[in-house]
Amino acid sequence: MAAISKTEILKVVRRALNPEKVEQSLIYWYKAVIQKDQPIKVGTLSIAMPFDGTIVFVDLAPRANWAHPCLYILVDTKTLETKILEASLPPDIDQFDESYIILLRYGEIPPNERYFNAFDK
């Protein structure tokens, strides 16, 4: 699992995004640490992870069908440095993977980390 806490990653997300984006989005965290230079799938692209880090996925239009704007926030687990990538497709991560959780739903912390439903508020 990631060497950073959920509280720390929430601070990183809130620093990286403006409040309007946070309030309109579902924000997911893939807690697993991805090693530097390991390929990761960002929509249809494959890129090398720029540092040992973790991924935050921001669905900017959770009630829309794909493809629509979304963001990937790559977070260095040591320095908390971020790299933000714009995309239009979700990550290639199995939602049944226990490392994949939801951090925020429309700006609020969800009742549980596996509450992925975008349609009820």
Explain what this protein looks like in three dimensions.
This protein is mainly beta and 121 residues long. The chain contains two helices and seven strands, in the order ααβββββββ. It has helices at 6-16, 19-24; strands at residues 26-34, 39-42, 45-48, 53-59, 70-76, 82-87, 100-105. The strands form two sheets. A five-stranded antiparallel β-sheet has the order 6-5-4-1-7. A two-stranded antiparallel sheet has the order 2-3. The model has no long low-confidence stretch (mean pLDDT 89).
Provide a compact summary of the structure:
This protein has 121 residues and is mainly β.
Helix content: 10-25%
First-to-last CA distance: 29 Å
Assess the beta-strand content as a share of residues.
35-45%
Overall geometric form: globular
Secondary structure: number of strands? 7
Poorly predicted spans: none
Structural class: mainly beta
Mean pLDDT equals 89
Largest sheet: 5 strands, antiparallel
Cα gyration radius (Å): 13 Å
Widest β-sheet, arrangement of strands: 6-5-4-1-7
Number of helices: 2
Order of helices and strands: HHEEEEEEE
